[in-house]
Fold each of these.
Amino acid sequence: MSTFAGLVLFAASLLGPPKPEQAHSRVYSVDIVVDSGEQALGAYQVEVTAVREGLLPPAVLVVEGGEPGEFAEPPRYDARAVRGGRLILAWFSLAAEDALPKGRTRVARVHLRVDGPGPEPVIAARAMAAGNARAERIEVSAEATVKAGGTEIIGHADHNGWGKARIER
Amino acid sequence: MNTNPNPEPEADVPQRVKSALRRAYAAPEVPPAVAETVMEEFRRRGAVRRVWRGRRMWWASAGMAASVALGVVVIRVMWPPAPVTVLPERMLAFGAGEGGPAGNAVAPTIGGGGSRGVEGGIEGGRGSERGDLPPSGEPAAPAVASGAPADQRALADGTDAAKEVAQGRSLADAGTGRFGSSSVSNVADPMLKAVLARPLGDLDGSGGVDVLDAMLLAIRVRDGLAKNDVSGGLVEDLNRDQSIDRLDVETLLRQAVRVEGAG
């Protein structure tokens, strides 16, 4: 009996109280929106940055595609950069110009995990390049918006090589 | 004198010496004493290993080097390398993308000056929108009008890189991609040379690789236009698998989204 109690106490000592990082981890869902105005959006390349002053940047858990349509597929990104606070998303569509979206288009949704207490991350998006249906360069703007009620519970996510993300809810 | 008896004294004697001795002595075998004497004489005079030693080797090496040098000189004299200048007017046919025709035109003239060459080339190649405005505090170049050809304006700038651009000696830049300066400089066609001098994967000539290059390649693959460019598909086969397909598009996309220093 005393041996069993000793084992229990030993296991409890290994578990210990939850670490602060674990207690304060949270997930942000960030919508990446590209505004192409009156022009059809055939391709985009957006730089997403997430920084926390004096702390490690948030880690990218998964990158989802955008709204239903031509950009519903997850964009390509560098899977090695998911912990660096800077990610470049890019994707294009070969659909006809009539089928391409115009105006504000949510092209991706990025889920970030923030560990530990501290300031909220500053998340920004910058349009690097965009094109129309003929791969001609057009002027667009990009913005990153933390989704309302942003914290989500994500079941499992992994980065399958180069930017082919998979999410299981 | 060698005190150890040689069990086979004739074995070390050269064949022509053996033949001469047999003829002289009219015997099928060379007497051991004679053979030993002959070999001793050979060793003493250093005739055994005399072939490539000492002065003889130096003279032979010098002769070979002189022959190679003479051959190079003859080839350079008979077929002198002609300097190739890519005029911006010829390069306008490549124009597409953000860089526009002007930026595209100077891409092949980026030279051995590295980034300085890039700046000089861009300054020299820009059109009338900014090339005629001198920096503040610096005198203008009155002798060259804004509408003058890029090479004349580049010469007027006076920088080394600009002069290289103007003289057409700076067609290749090793820092721009896989095509090194030597391979590019061997290409005769200036149009092809201009394409090869771009960064690898820069299909639209914008000066960098982005998603539009991947989309352009995807459109070309879809429409069956791949390999029909001026390079015969050389710049489109990015993964070097001898075919231009969606894998090359993926390769280009990876290059576009690559984050430097990640991982």
Note: The interface with chain B takes residues 42-45, 76-78, 80-81, 84, 86-92, 94, 128-129, 131, 134-137, 162-163 of chain A (CB under 8 Å).
Amino acid sequence: MKYDVVIIGGGLSALTAGITLASNGKRVCMVAAGQNSLHFSSGSFDFLGYDADGNAVTNPIEAIKTLPTIHPYRIIGEENIGSLVTSAQALLSDAGVETKGEIAQNHYRITPIGTIKPTWLTIEGYATAASLTETRWKKADLINIQGFLDFPIEFLVDNLRDTGTTCTIRNINTEALTQARKSPTEMRATNVAKYLDSKTDLMDFANAINAIDSDAEVVLVPAVLGLNNSAQAEELKALVKKPIEFIATMPPSVSGMRTSTLLKRKFMALGGTILVSDTAVSGVFENNRLVSIATSQLPDEVLRADQFILASGSFLSHGLKSDYEKVYEPVLGVDVEAVANRVEWTKENVYDAQPYMEFGVKTDAQFHALKEGVAIENLYAAGSILCGNNDIKLASKEGVAMLTALQVANIIKEK
Amino acid sequence: MVSFINIMYLCFANESKTFSKRTFLLANKISKRKNLNKNLIMTLNNKHNIKESYDVIIIGGGITGAGTARDCAMRGLSVLVVEKYDLANGATGRNHGLLHSGARYAVTDHESAAECITENMILRKIAAHCVEETDGLFITLPEDDLSFQSTFVEACGKAGIRADIISPEEARHIEPSVNPTLIGAVRVPDASVDPFHLTTSNILDACRHGADVLTYNEVVGMIIVNGMVEGVQLCDNHTGEVYEVRSRVVINAAGIWGMPILQMADIKLNMFPAKGTLLIMGHRINNMVINRCRKPANADILVPDDAVCVIGTTSDRVPIETVDDLKITPEEVDILIKEGEKLAPALATTRILRAYAGVRPLVAADNDPSGRSISRGIICIDHEKRDGLGGLITITGGKMMTYRLMAEEATNLACKKLGIDKPCETAVKPLPGSEGLDKNAKEWHLPKAYNAAKGRQGMRVNEIKNETLTDRALVCECEEVSVGEVKYAYENLNIHNLIDLRRRTRVGMGTCQSELCACRAAGVMCSMNKDPKKTLHDLGNFVNERWKGMRAVGWGSTLDEAHLAATVYQGLCGINQIMNKKESK
Amino acid sequence: MKEQGIQLKNISGNNLEQCLKCSICTVYCPVSAVSPEYPGPKHSGPDQERYRLKDTKFFDETLKMCLNCKRCEVACPSGVRIADIIQSARIEHSKKRPALRDVMLANTDFVGTMANIVAPVVNVTLGLKPVKAVLHGVMGVDKHRTFPAYSSQKFETWYKKFAAAKQDSFKHHVSYFHGCYVNYNYPQLGKDLVKVMNAIGYGVHLLEKEQCCGVALIANGLSKQATRQGNNNMRAIRKSYKEQNRMVLTTSSTCTFTMRDEYKHVLKIENEDVREGISLATRYLYRLVESGKVKLAFRKDFKIRTAYHSACHMEKMGWVVYSTELMKMIPGLELIMLDSQCCGIAGTYGFKKENYERSQKIGAGLFDQIKSLNPDCVSTDCETCKWQIEMSTGYDVINPISILADAIDVEETMRLNNV
């Protein structure tokens, strides 16, 4: 099979590149290897929440300067960041993911345990804080779905109290929720969303909230609405008398699944192809070019393309793998920046910066992946697979995913 | 005394009960068994709710201390157990979980072997709920000397251990994971035992007989008056408060930590900490214990424990200063995999969940300060005789599985000192959890979590609330731990934090090593203790504690798992902010 | 050869150990969304498997609620064969004997043979209210179900009468595993395949002996019979592929998937040597065209707007791309991709009265999407999806091969390929 561009990966980075290229008339095929890490999303898109020393960042563009030169933002170059950021937000909005936030200044998201983190974009409807130490409300009702364990409500109440909001826990139960609770294992955010997926069940839920008699100024609701679009969240807003805002839950993330679905729909509507259950396994190189890749489901097929993008993610997505002896990139065997000695991959305290999180694929300044030290002309790397970015410490996951993908797509577009 | 039973759970209030016939029957059963489980509770003690003086203070909340507490309490003594961390925190919780048949020692140490088989048979009865009767194989590989087999079988016979030579074919048939190249096999009555629940059960029984338990209280000094130990000085490790408790006898059952305890009384005992490292595999490879039929060496036992199996151990002398923070080296991991693979080749390709290490307290003979003549047998020291210091007994050496015998010897000595003449009954009276237990009668129509919990708590499972949907919900999906079991453990089993909870249930011990379960468990705990700050901090510590064991085997899926956990707890939730803030204070 | 080094690979039954417990599979399970009694794929599969290895009694009969749609495996980022773990556990541990209804539903070919003989009667009878009531009440087949109509002439009979003779005259040859559905219910699809293949110069032959692939037997817990039939099929396919050098084509995604993957993973039948000899016809055709070996010409007046439904097993095989790319070659065809989700029928699952409501609930989102798109027809590679979607939406559901057969300009195609 022959495409203009083949993308290895199916996450935020792959979809961003795919949509950009498909909307520029390219025939794009994505080899996805299952679902992506958007499913652990917070409802926000982080760009650069902390600098290299762990200090919270106010102005992300300014803070890029403090990053080491190996960091993907430094490779993109400051001069390009601004326009890419605009494209990224537009791309999301175009796919139906409406967000608030701006790059000039971080705003603040509220985590499932009630801590506050700096972020770039937050999905409309999600609660944000005024600053790292201040929430926006004096008094809030916090909705607790009875028996839903993936919303650690006591921590939320406590941490929100420390940042200025007195929360009252309001237990809610409806018939649909009682049904959902019958499973000892499956009362997860995404399943609750499925059980609330009908008009009557949503109405019951809204009525239960409206029945609360209180003088709170806002109702905080766990983000368990709308797997496929934001319609339900908006409907609930319309049905509930008080203003409501959503708080992210523990994974699987409803907003993440929604973002993933909407981006995929967009990509396919543009004529893109997704091999959703397939895994790229190897590639054929000739004269510093990647000619084709093979996949596990189509063993006697080759996927040929003019350009390839490697956006298969980091360890948790298996874009990077490790064994007893080494860290490697399993599909194409491109060069990986990693410490050789296994003992040095990790630090004893889990909360210290873990060296392995910075491991990743080496590239040149145009994000061409290197193989045996030589840049492959038509192979680009994007997203979490890139080296030099500890996205957990820097709170930079989504920003790096989208911006590197856009940068790579822009380079390919020109060809 | 503070009662924690009647706390209302805000989150779980108004839960409508699902009345089904099944639940009704269960409720009936529970009420019938109620009297058996009466008073089975470990109270969360502190200096304010204990007595001023006891007959006996037992130092150490490992299996030896727990067993000694039970024995002393059953003989009518008033008992206080003091432990600086949590129950089973030391060597007790860091071994194979092997109920030796004694065969391993048959050739080299007849006495130990005979002790093992006797205790093995006793524990099968009194601690049936903690024991899985797997049997074991001693295999001979082509590289081993097959002639050792007859020596081995003969020695087993002398020690009273049943040892049947079986053909390699039969060995492969009854244990398909065994190295297929084996040239000989002997079947022996090895079994697996859960050291955490064995300790809990002993303590629970001690408490039922009036004993008090203080965890997170550390002995910082001995009260010595006129050549007699009259009590101990304790430090509450949570508050830092130092106070005194009196007793007529002090029993030092602190394992390797008993050496610094003795130093407080100016007594020198040559003990050598021997570190043993083990690896936990992701699932059961084998259903029988597999040993090598040769003289004991490194990494030659593979034991099935609950849903996992454990390969071990290495053996290295380490400095006493390191015993609270043992480091696992890549070399040890290397040996364990390479040698373990010889027992069951599947080990080479199975995910390793974590590594851990424990310390055996080895005691040198008194006339040998070099420590070359090490005894692995039970050592019960009357310091009045040895050092002229009255009221102090040290019980050490031995093995986890001979704890009951050790306890009996120590208790006999204590009773003698106190002038009490009452026989030991610990070998005949079943432990709480095993009382009335019919191992074959599992209630398979009930939720799987019920039976998983029964495998841990024994008959005490009927104390676990599972009538409502919220109580049945699973906190830990890997290990089938329900909300009800977490609540039960919190209310009855002396739990200060999530790590304690893990030892009383199995929360966080499965494949994911805390990914979602820890946060859920913390939420349930918090709904009861109403202390979100502490509980969130505990959650952070728990995640870190799990990481330490994963890190030593941090490659492949285990590293991916850790990356995912970090993404959830740090990336999504930002718990690192809280942990780092506390540390900088 | 043994590889050097330690722990280079992580091998476990159906990749059990690769599970990171990320729970993504649970999001895509069509059953747990509508049946709270079902513990979900993660728990039924990799979680409880660890306990089943300890004690087989940890097996739970709720596992039979699994549709075996494989959506969990498609979603899994770590390559865990979750549904295979569940199906293997069912085969290994389930003590329950399948009910008569399940045996009947499972034996699609036996029932088909009986029904064909008296097709007009059966079709009328299966449609009659009292009969449906009996099926519903006594047999446990849901009364809302329209049974697929049985054809009065089996495909095999038609083939022998009208097609067999001329097949040897072609230059190239393939075998055709038609499956029960084509044989008993919808011979037209088989005829369409013969039409297309003949047009490009390929003779179509039947296998020496074809038996039902056994997918329904596996789903209904009749693994012994399934293994027997599987071995027979493998023998026939081996002969075709290895001895006669003929690819074995199919028009059913489920039969293909069963023979290629389930035989080995679930029934433990060795099929590695012929796995690549079994292909869906759309895949085979696409590859012939793409490699330039074959050219297709289409009718100028052909025009259709179709919405493609990715059947579960198509998705699992990763072959959706072949059918859709093939259809995209038709100039007059507008293709819309439906959201990939289960339609709820899952073979015989939706026929059982205890599952009917659930089955409809699972597919509800898909049905709504189809209705709002209002295409000329729906296309899919799976016959049971066809029943479900037709019954639930009223839209015609057509196999891509039939669309192709309709769109193709036979004479021009023959000319292009020198037939």
Note: Chain C has four domains: 13-93, 100-139, 155-290, 304-410.
